[in-house]
Amino acid sequence: IIFYSIYFYISVKNNAAVMLNVISHFKKTTVQFKLLLILELLNVTLTYGQARTDITHNVIYIGGGRQGLTYIKYERLVMYKNWTQTIINLGYGGIPGDHEPPNNTPRHNIIAPELGQLIGKNVIFIEIGIEPAINFFGSTTYTDLNAILGLRYQSRTRQFGGLFFQVGYNPRLYCTYKSDIDAPYYFGLGLNF
């Protein structure tokens, strides 16, 4: 018993030190590496959504608004219950710049992962979620935390698969840089597969 107690104490102490080391290194990592970690997290969480074969798990769509002018997103169904679905998606969007004098405005690029919940039955759903956006505007990089509140038409059954449409409201909850761009409404059109 004493041996196991000592072993447990040493393993807990080592694991705590390792976790603190990982956290301190994560704070020092670059934005690109954090994006790589987010993509890997998305890849790991996708395995649950592959259990059902009678429904579509993927959506790709384009749209306008959503704190930018245009965007494209890939979405994956992670969990499916009777009247609720958990989704994750990753998108890229932005606003074109104007490089002609006298404006010389740089392009505004946005990378936006989302964790959302769809509530509804059949093909009409209310979408609620959170979207931390990483913004690149010239030499300035900043983050926003945006809420998602929307309405979508979507059929996940394979026999009725196809069209996807959404409209909604995307307000900023928190931002690290005050930008002149504020387009909180959005729409999207895409395909299930």
**Which segments are poorly predicted (pLDDT under 50) over 5 or more consecutive residues?**
11-20
Q: H/E element string? A: HHEEEEEEEEE
Report the sheet-strand fraction.
over 45%
Share of helical residues: 10-25%
- Number of alpha- plus pi-helical segments: 2
Main sheet record: 8 strands, antiparallel, barrel
Output mean pLDDT: 77
Query: Which geometry do the CA atoms define?
Result: elongated
Rg (CA only): 21 Å
Describe this structure in words.
The protein is an alpha+beta fold and 193 residues long. Helices cover 22% and strands 48% of the residues. An eight-stranded antiparallel beta barrel has the order 1-2-3-4-5-6-7-9. The longest helix is centred in the N-terminal third of the chain and has 27 residues, at 2-28. The chain is elongated. 23% of the residues are buried. Mean pLDDT is 77; it is low at 11-20.
List the helices and strands and how they pair.
Blueprint lengths: L1 H27 L2 H15 L12 E8 L4 E11 L3 E12 L12 E14 L2 E14 L2 E15 L8 E7 L2 E4 L9 E8 L1
Antiparallel strand pairs: 1-2, 1-9, 2-3, 3-4, 4-5, 5-6, 6-7, 6-8, 7-9
